[in-house]
Amino acid sequence: MADVAKLAGVSGQTVSRVVNGNDRVTAATRLKVEAAMQQLGYRANIAARALATGRFGTIGVVMFNLSAVLNVRIVEAVVTGAQARGYSVSVAVVDGPTEKDVRAAVRGLTDRAVDGVIVIEARVLDTPHLRLPEEVPLVIADSRAAHKHPTFGMDEAAGARAAVDHLLGLGHATVHHVAGPAGSNPAQRRRAAWQRQLKRSGRAVPPPVAGDWSPRSGYDAALRLLADDGVTAVFAANDQMAVGVLRAAAELGRRVPGDLSVVGFDDLDFAPFLTPPLTTVRQDLETVGRRCVEHLIARIEEPRGAGVPQPASRFVRPELIVRASTAPPPAGRR
Amino acid sequence: MADVAKLAGVSGQTVSRVVNGNDRVTAATRLKVEAAMQQLGYRANIAARALATGRFGTIGVVMFNLSAVLNVRIVEAVVTGAQARGYSVSVAVVDGPTEKDVRAAVRGLTDRAVDGVIVIEARVLDTPHLRLPEEVPLVIADSRAAHKHPTFGMDEAAGARAAVDHLLGLGHATVHHVAGPAGSNPAQRRRAAWQRQLKRSGRAVPPPVAGDWSPRSGYDAALRLLADDGVTAVFAANDQMAVGVLRAAAELGRRVPGDLSVVGFDDLDFAPFLTPPLTTVRQDLETVGRRCVEHLIARIEEPRGAGVPQPASRFVRPELIVRASTAPPPAGRR
DNA sequence: CGGATCTATGTTTGCGCTAACTTAGGCGTG
DNA sequence: CACGCCTAAGTTAGCGCAAACATAGATCCG
Lengths: 334, 334
Description:
The first copy, chain A, contains eleven helices and twelve strands. By secondary structure, chain A is α/β, with parallel strands linked by helices. At the A-B interface, α4, α5, β2, α6 and α9 of A face α4, α5, β2, α6 and α9 of B.
């Protein structure tokens, strides 16, 4: 920077002003400085700036497991949004599902230099009400509001209700559920909503079978479920497990949707092209991610919290996409 | 840090030594300092450290599109590996496929404070031989070696050859190809290897139909392809498009594998549970990611390049997984 | 047992930048 | 025309840490 200043015949402070844009600098000086920067290939040292300002221009994302499609889509939206606002994104993956692990990850990130943190809380923690360091603004991407921190997510209960209502509306006596893993928040919520909706409709609540999100687990679960001839409708907690359910049905000679209706969750891109095309609940994770960053950056840049508009809604409504995998139950059943 | 030093009754430098581990400090002083740090809740300011040392403890990942399954798996391996070595990871997503865009992203990242960069080069660039800033070590995750920079990837040609050989071995006269988008490197390579292998085997090379990796595009491509009754074997450039192919076959009343054999690429987790289970080429992206980080970190910590062992192999061999979607052609055809 | 050698610690300095203050000149107003 | 006020620039002083050098005491050896 000193070199640039000398070459341009100005003080270092003026260079700094030019670099940071909007200060009061004459057009003429600005041009001189810019020419000098160009000529010398000057690039600001961000560590020095961070040291002087205490800001880093980076936001951190904490998550369990990057490869869950769900999470990635949020992360991608976060990265895109952050980049658009001039922030970079640091990603941390947490091992265990304890609050301690999450807290450590957040600390690691703040130690590391971030101005704010987004936690994608996909796992059920040992402590139900996550309490995290508050050195920097923090936003949680999750599907419930029971946090101390601002939270954005999907209204997964609404999605599960829509799935159940759709199947009951077709005339099925009840709906069986292939649940996600017990340790997963979305899984818990989808399961709870399924159960509540059945009860509310006065139907029997069959015991759910839990999988682990993988197609294989959906397959295994369905083999058990379909041992009972009376099962006519299955709601799988995600599309991947639904694939397994379809496969099991095929192997057992149950025709979908003739003998069995199947509903998934997520609307992954292959859902319309399965055999048969899958009725499922579409999730708009991009919006969730976008809202998280926007809110976070607003908080970062307006630390008092004033001027940070409350978003219209913290929970995005999913949408039921009806395809060929659902139909009325076979004649003779209800 | 000064406070810690005062409380522990030592100099700041000694605190620094304790924080950075391995220097020569008496066990007694170390304990005193650690107690003081604990008591004061001291946490090093990473910006100051970076300013003093010129190192950041961060590596950057540049990619087109985070949501491609392929890339995510690499990124996840990179993040995990980096974390294990005490580095954090900054992610940048590039818009366009020009070398300029990539270079800008790398610059942005290095401006931003990274000690090294991994570029996941999934797109075909305008300039075939990527030339990037060399301010920091840089590793490319790609499937060819034609770079100025160290490169790790899959031997995708071997995968495509295996797919073709498998189908020809079953007795198919030739193999049709649903290719990935022209702008994609892996797509190009899979297509080229498919074509070469057919030629080498003295078979006709039917014109490939290009998709865009999505199940929908595979479906569309297959509809066109299967208009010709003579098509008995299709090699799709990824599993998602293979899903679309299976769907199209079902709609057209072609039985798989009775009338038509289908091979995919990637072995995504749903592949064994499609109807029928999909023969495909398994990719070990985790190993690719791991090798990238390991090599990069070695370079970062040993800048002279000495002592950085050349990896056993820069290209991981994929594996053909044979499942029920492939069989000999219907009787009467070849 | 004295000098060389080592070890644990302290001191000084500067990494590159920006916040906060200061200065110098230009302008308008009464 | 004198005064204050505004604007564009310069000056000063750290931000918190680690590298490099300095020092004092301990250890070793012939």
